[in-house]
Design goal:
This protein is an alpha+beta fold. The chain has one domain. The chain is built from 1 helix and 3 strands, in the order ββαβ. Strand 1 and strand 2 form a beta hairpin. The longest helix is centred in the middle third of the chain and has 7 residues.
């Protein structure tokens, strides 16, 4: 899944480690910009 916002390339990756950071024990799709910046 790839989405473009504000003319910026956002990568959506399915990671369990990131899901754990969100507080979810299940796999979730995390969309983060190429700048390695977490938005939320």
């Amino acid at each position: 899944m790839t989405q473009q916002r504000s003319s910026r390339s956002i990568k959506c990756t399915r990671s369990t480690s990131y899901a754990a950071h969100e507080g979810s024990s299940s796999d979730s799709y995390l969309c983060k910009p190429d700048s390695q910046t977490l938005v939320g």
